[in-house]
Amino acid sequence: MNNWTISLKNLLHKPLYAFLSIFSLSISVGLLLGIQQLDSSIQNQFTNTLGNIQMVVGAKGSPLQLVLSSVLHMDNPTGNIKYSEVEKLVKNPLVRTAVPLSYGDNYKGYRIVGTTAGFPKIYEAQLLKGKEIEHSMEVVLGNTVAQKLNLQIGDTFLSSHGLTKNAIEEHEQSFTVVGIYKPTYNVIDKLIVTNLSSIWDVHHHEEHEEEAVHEAHEEESHDEHLHDTHKNEDKEVTSILVSFRNPMGLMTMPRNINTNSNMQAALPKYELERLFRFTGVGVKAISWIAYIILLISCITIFISLYKMVRERAFDLALMRTYGASNFQLFRIVAFEGIVIVFIALIFGFLFSQIGLYFIISLFKSQFQQEVILTFSTVNMLNNILIVVIISMVSILLAIFPILKMNISKILSDEK
Question: What is the pLDDT of residues 281-296, one digit of tens each?
Fold first, then answer.
């Protein structure tokens, strides 16, 4: 009978201690691996979503809310701004691109975003099939939207007012699907993209009908010109995604907009870093809880192995008299602890992946946000190394009494 067999028999002889040790250590490993993997995955996902967006311009309010709503599409907008502001930004020599967004409707929980041809370029989105938007009331679907809603080229649908799936107020004009994007694994996958005219037409349909009647009674061209000017001024967008030609724009324009206009400029990178600092507190708290559980589980392993050494002192002493070395006795006890740690690492990894699956599924259902799990090998190895080191210390402390074992006294006491 080899050392591994003896260790396994000892382990099965104390199922309660073995279960408690493995369960507590597995929970600790699962928490450590899971929370850090979730944190790094969300940070990477949000950071990648930024693309080349350096500034977001929108109505006054919370800058974080503006970034979440316009870049990540996870929150309500802060309000609307005049379309004329887009034209000003496009003409600014410091600005490379200024992409307007206009939204406020959804179809079965997926946002309909009115924008320009520059929007899909931010995410390098390419058509899987169909064509780009050419006319009002045409849409191109993100890949996730097309798959989840089973929409095809030529299908039509009515949008609902608001950004939530429960909205029941439907508009009269229908959208027509003309294209579907390839999967980008980015935020555009969960959006329904159309042009600005579509959003304006849907929300001002009744107003346009009244204007058409009014225009039919206009007789003077001067009055018509004034009316068209007024109509253009009434056009609004939700926000503007901006990238700059050089660092000078990033240094000067946000402050200028916030100070000298009725709009606000938010820096997505800064706002997300601020958000991560807040969430980092929770990550650290859960990590410390995991370390406390790890310490408790290692104490449990220590007590289990130490108890085994004390209870089986006669057997170990007898083996010593038959020629077994201290190192062989060490291995018998240590192998039992190693088996516990090895099984706990496997179950801990499985627990972390199962937990992440449910958390990401919940996150996806709540925010329609796809999160791709990224795995940091360095962080994983660091956590495993910490678990192994603490576990090995508890195992060594448990088998230390073997060195001080008085064989003759133990054998005589048993007789």
Answer: 888 888 888 888 888 8
